[in-house]
Amino acid sequence: MHKEEIKEKIRQYYNKIPSRQKKIADYVVEHFDRIPFLNIHELAKDSSSSEASIVRYAQRMGYGGFKELQDEIAETLQNKLANNDLFTVPELKNDVLSSVAQQDVKNINDTLALIKRTTFNKAVSSIVSSDIVYTAGLGISYLLAEILSYQLNQIGVQSAVFRQGSTEFAEQILYMKKNDLLI
Fold first, then answer.
1. Which residue, among 168, 135, 138, has the nearest Cα to 152 in the 3D structure?
2. Is 0.85 topped by the overall pTM?
3. What is the dihedral of CA 58, 63, 66, 67, to 10 degrees?
4. Which of 21, 114, 170, 171 could be cross-linked to 57 through a Cys-Cys bond (beta carbons 3.0 to 4.6 Å apart)?
């Protein structure tokens, strides 16, 4: 089943369900991509509903319970990832801006399709659990190191750039501590 098919199924049942379940239906449609990552307690809290109402809603939709609805939504998202169409660009004019946007979307989809989730999650875990993240680069890579350090600081991860110049990287590494990370 596709995302739109599930949403259409929700729309078909919408006028036949009690108002409490309509809140759940509205939440599912508005936050469709989040549903696979929520447990029933979180969904109940976020949709201002009870867990029992969520189970009854899923059953009314033809599922055995919330878990089956959640699994169906997760499967649609996995199919979307497998088909490399997570992001799409509508038909645009044939101009430079449209070409650049389409290339960016292609690059995002390629990245999502090619990157190993376990490797990515391990890298994120290492970054988040470190005390200070140091970044380093030579030549044009130095600019990327500065950008990464800036962005990490923006999201609350303490970061600093190893500077090029009078001190060598090896000398700067001497100041790193056990829980620091070097990228």
1. 135
2. no
3. -170
4. 21
SS3 call for 161: strand
Write the CB contacts of 37 (distance below 8 Å, at least 6 apart in sequence): none
- What are the tens digits of pLDDT across the range 60-79? 888 999 999 998 888 887 77
Say whether 112 sits in a helix, a strand or coil. Answer: helix
- pLDDT, residue 12, reads 87
Closest CA to 46 of 28, 58, 19: 28
Helix intervals (H) in the chain? 3-14, 19-30, 40-46, 51-60, 66-82, 96-114, 117-129, 140-154, 169-173
Q: Report strand pairing: 159-161 vs 181-182.
A: unpaired
Low-confidence stretches of the chain (pLDDT < 70) are 1-2, 81-92, 166-167
